[in-house]
Design a protein that fits this description.
Rossmann fold, 34% helix, 3 domains, 8-stranded antiparallel sheet, globular, 592 residues, binds 2-deoxy-2-amino glucitol-6-phosphate
Length: 592
Amino acid sequence: MCGIVGYTGKRRAVFILLEALERLEYRGYDSSGVALLEGGQIFVDKKVGKIRELIKSLWGKELNATTGIGHTRWATHGGVCELNAHPHTDGEGRFALVHNGIIENYRELKEYLISRGVKYVSETDTEAIVHLISLNYEGDLLKAVLKVLPMLKGAYAFAVISSMEPNRIVGVRYGSPLVVGLGEGENFLASDIPALLPFTKKVIPLEDGEIADITPDGVSIYDFEGNLKVKESITVQWDLLSAEKGGFKHFMLKEIFEQPRVVADTIKGYISRDYELPFSLKDFRRIVITACGTSYHAGLIGKYWLERFVGIPVEVSYASELRYSDTPIGEGDLVIAISQSGETADTRFSALSAKEKGAVLLSIVNVMGSALSRESDYTLYTHAGPEIGVAATKTFTCQLAVLFSLAISAHPERENLINQLLKVPNLMEEVLSKAEGIKEVALNYSQRKNLLYLGRYLSYPVALEGALKLKEISYIHAEGYPAGEMKHGPIALIDQHMPVVVVAPRDRVYEKILSNIEEVLARKGIVISVGFEGDENLKKLSKDFIEIPQVAEELTPFLTVLPLQLFAYYIADYLGLDVDQPRNLAKTVTVE
Ligand code: AGP
């Protein structure tokens, strides 16, 4: 979604805001802007395009303000244009505001405001908030905000400044993330933690229904009734380096190569028994997994493992579907919500709805202090570190590590299975060491317009994930499909122009997948396969064969996904596309 930042302190705010915005750009990059508070005036500059357009516009201007707010936008309401870019003001230079989220009742609010003579200049929902604050201001910014909040419906995080109140920012969180950063004689606001890392590691992640009243000398937290709340700060373990590119051309490439280490880190957290959950999975009649995108694909793999090692039925749903379905959920069910960011609205709301119906909610998240981690009965963390690339890679394999550890946690063969799991990081290294060969294969397909990805059993969700990676960063259409389903229709798509990526490790369905490859070849399809080293069948049948080391059947997804991540990366990079910030996308979608 969008990224919002705020700074008040002793340094020139514009530099702090721009650096923080650059670290939030992966959340959305249609436009950006800043509002600076100086000498009782509010200076606003905003530009369409990436942050660099804003930097160019601000360059050389004498901007000494020590308080300000900033925004990078992923458009929801209103087109991508300067008028709709944030910050939005009251039009009289008294207030400026930046917002992430959606005000669902903004049309009624806009009509009300216009009826009160307000000049509403943009197409956004955000502008309604700043005008309401202006109308309700009676000398105290926090009080004006408190009056306005009951009028707003939807999910939002916003920060507002006033020309009448120097060195003060009021930030509000309700459904979209917002984190306070604590410094010495200076304090910060940001949509998420990586934006704060250059300045402080001491943070207070706000919870829904909380307000931060920020000055250089201190931060006060209130609830929506205006009651003061005592909140503990946390010290973030992530270091700045882990959020930098580390010499890689893109964050995504760095994160692909970080996987062996972060998967090993994640496994370490679960092979001892000190994370034990206070219940047995067998206590439940059923497990329902809810997630989106890549996290959904991890859930599909988790289903196979949980049903195999725990022996209870598992249902995996797209979160956006589950929430509005009539799926009976309640007492006796365990809901597992998987979300890298812990802020995805679809996942949160579907999980909370299930919890309200009596299910136990366990979440698997990567970001400490995220909404989902606080709203769940139990949280298992991946230890992937910050994932900056919009396309999820390392957080996917870390989700697998948590899901596998969870599935085997009470299995009689646990020790042996853990020993198998502990071999995975080195085997992942081995696959990644073949990156150059994978790049060569990938570039043969960079001009294609359509690809099919096929797999069976544990390789079916891997095929879905491989297709998603290609789609979201190269904009080439790719479809993942269960290989056994091809003969029921999609095989009509196969001809000599259709490359088909087949994920074919030697597992329980290996013979079946070979038959599916033969079916593709019989229609002159082009086969690119991923399989175990030395597999003569695949070598013979495939135009391109990407080899991975042998591994136990149940662990193949950790290895088979890697060539597909690299395949997508090298094609997108070759096409000169913006791998870390693909068009139309945002890293975290905090709206439904
Ligand atoms: C995957 O590469 C995408 N970035 C997207 O599908 C993502 O997995 C999805 O939006 C869910 O995000 P979450 O894990 O933070 O909930």
